[in-house]
């Protein structure tokens, strides 16, 4: 079974922990959107 690509809207504590857990379990995080570019980039780097 293939896993879906995931897009996160928001890069706060909940999104960060959820994205990292999904990434560790083989999910592909396609994009991260946030109000601030720095937050989005920080989370994106953690899950690439």
TrEMBL record:
GO terms for molecular function: glutamyl-tRNA reductase activity. Its EC number is 1.2.1.70. The keyword Manganese does not apply. The keyword Cell membrane does not apply. Keywords: Oxidoreductase. Residues 2-47 form the Quinate/shikimate 5-dehydrogenase/glutamyl-tRNA reductase domain. This is Glutamyl-tRNA reductase.
């Amino acid at each position: 079974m293939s896993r879906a690509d995931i897009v996160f809207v928001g890069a706060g504590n909940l999104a960060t922990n959820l994205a990292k857990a999904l990434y560790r379990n083989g999910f592909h995080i396609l994009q991260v959107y946030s109000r601030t570019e720095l937050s989005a980039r920080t989370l994106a780097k953690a899950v690439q």
